[in-house]
Amino acid sequence: MTSAVKRLWKTEKNLGTSKGIDMNKTHSVDNYLHKELLRFTTAGSVDDGKSTLIGRMLYDSKAIFQDQMEALERTSTLRGDDEVDLALLTDGLRAEREQGITIDVAYRYFSTPKRKFIIADTPGHVQYTRNMITGASTADLAIILIDARNGVLTQSKRHGFIASLLGIRHLLVAVNKMDLVGWSEDVYNKIVEDYTTFSEKLEIHDMTFIPISALKGDNVVDKSKHLPWYDGGTVMHYLESVTISSDRNLIDFRFPVQYVVRPHLDFRGFAGRIASGTIKVGEEIISLPSCTESRIKEIIFYEDKLEEVFEGQSVIITLEDEIDISRGDMIVRKHNVPTVSNTFEAILCWMDDTKPLNTSTFYEIQHTTKNVQGYVRNLRYKIDVNTLHRESADHLLLNEIGKVRIETTSPLFFDPYTKNRQSGSFILIDPAANLTVGAGMIVKNISEIDPDADSKIKSTNVMWEDRIVTREDREEKYGQKAQVFWFTGLSGSGKTTLARELEKKLFDEGKQVYLLDGDNIRHGINGDLGFTEKDRKENIRRIGHIAKLLYNAGFIVLCSFISPKREMREFVRGLFPEGSFSEVFVKCDIKRCISRDPKGLYKKALAGEILNFTGITAVYEEPEDAEIVIDTEKVSIQDGVGKLGSRLIGKQTGDGIPE
Length: 659
Hints:
Structural class: alpha/beta
Radius of gyration: 29 Å
CATH topology of the largest domain: Rossmann fold
CATH class of the largest domain: Alpha Beta
Number of helices: 18
Strand content: 25-35%
Oligomer: single chain
Largest sheet: 8 strands, antiparallel
C-alpha cells in the first residue's frame, strides 16, 4: 500500500472514531481500498450555495477536523458573520473569500462507511464556465443548485447543458434556500417543472430533484422537519446509493502508452493508465498505429503480477513479441479497435479569454497521451445554451460552444465521446503561449462511414493542401453560391429525371452545375463495389467526397442516389458547412415505382434475380427532416424543378424558402 493511500485511510479511521464507530471492525485497509469511489461536481448560478452545500455535507458527516472548524469560526467572526460560514471550506482563494464567490475549482475528499467521494466545487459566474468544464470532466454525477428565490436561471441551464455534453449520466437538481421561500411546495414544484421542460432536450439519463437548505442543513445529510410534503431522500442518501457501476466502459480496452520502461536489455514494458475496458494475460492485442499483433505476457502493478486489470488502473504491460511502441501509441484488443483517423467532428468549448477560435491557425492537440499538430478546418455552428438552437458563426469566444471539424497531421485513435469519455476527449493548446484554449468531445469520425474494426487507415501521413484559388474566389467569379442537392428516393421515384431537368435549367442559365448519378458512378470509380451493406456505405462515402471536391470548386452539385440508410445521408451532410447541403426526398409509393420500373429492375428483384434490392428485399429509410419533399405522384416534373429552382434562388440570396 502506497504512503498516500495509508494517509487517506488513517484520516478516515480518525474521522470514524470521532463519530463513535469502531473502525477496526468496519474500516480495514482492505475494505477501504475496495470501497467504491464517486466523483461528483457542483454547479449552478452565482450565490446559489454550492460551496455552502459542500461545507454542510462535510460538517454534518463529521468530516471536518477540530483545527479546521476553529479556523472557520475565527474567519467568520472577522467577517462579521452571525453563523459559521461553511462555504469557506472550499473557497480557499483570497479573492473568493473577499467576493463571496467561487473562482477556481476546489477539490475535496471525504468518505462515509458506504463510499469514498471526490468533490469538485466549480464556479457559478459565467466568466468561469471553463473552470466548470474542468471540474466536471471526470465526474460521475453533477449537482446543479438552484436558488428557490430566483428559479431557473441561464447559468443553471448552461451548467445542465455542459453536464449533458460531458456525458455525465446522473444529475441531481438541489433546490436550495427553501427556508427563504417559507418551505413552499408550490415554489419547488414550479422549479421542477421548468427545469424538467428544459432538460427534455438534453442527454441526461437519470435526474433527481431534492428541496434543501444548505445553510440550515435541511435534507443535506439529515432529513428535514420543515418539508413534510417531501417524501424523498436526502442529498447524502442519494450520493451513497446512486448506481454508477454500470456507467463504466468495461468493454472497449484502450491502453494509451505513457512511458516505455526499459531498465535493462531483458525487460521492455509499457506503462500507462487503462482508459477503459479490461484485459487478461494471454489475450491478443494490436498496437496502434502500426497494427502489429501480439499477446499480453505480463501485467505488473507495483510489486505484484496480476492476471487481469480494469479501467482506471495504472500498470506496466509486457508483450510476448518485441514491438516498436512509444509514448502516444495505444494498445487495444485485437477484435475491438477504435477509429484511426486524421479527421473528426467534435463539440468544442472555447476557453481562451484573449483570442477567439482561429480556423487558419495550427494548434497542438493533446488526446490521451498523444500530442499532434492540427487545426480546426471548419466551424459548423455555434450552440445557444439558452435555447439549445444552432447558430451560424465564424468564430468562438470565451465559454462559447460549437461543433467543429478538426484535421491532424498524424492519426489519432479515438471513440465517440458518448461511448468512451477517455478516448473521446481532447484539449487544444496554443503552442505559442503554451495555454489550453479549448476542450472538446469527439462526436464522430468523418473520414469513414463504416470503419472496419480490424482495418487501418492506409493514408496516414497526409494533410489537405489549401489552394491559392479558394471556393469563395470561384463563387465570386461564377456569380453563385456553391450548393449540394442530394436527391434520395426509391428506384423509379423520378429523382434522376428531376435532377437532370434541374441541371439543364441551371446550365442554360449560365450556372456552373454538375450532376452525379448512381449508375454513372458505378461504371467508373465505384465499379469495384457491389450491393452489400458494406459496399453501399463505401459507395456513398466515395460519392460524398467527390461531391465535396466539386463543391470546393464552386459548383452547384446535384447528387441522385437511392442512399437507403439515414446514416449514409447524414455522413454526407456532415462533410459540408451548415446550410450548404439540402436533402431532396423524391417521394413515391412503392407500387407506383414498380409500375414504372424504367430499367426492369423491380421485375428481376421480384423474380429473385436481384438480391438486396431496395424496396423489395432491402429496407429504405425515408428522410425525417428533408429540406425539400417532392411527391412525384402529385407534382409534375416541371413543377418539381420550379420548386427546386425557388429553393436555389433563396440559397443564393441568403433567404430561406419556407416549405
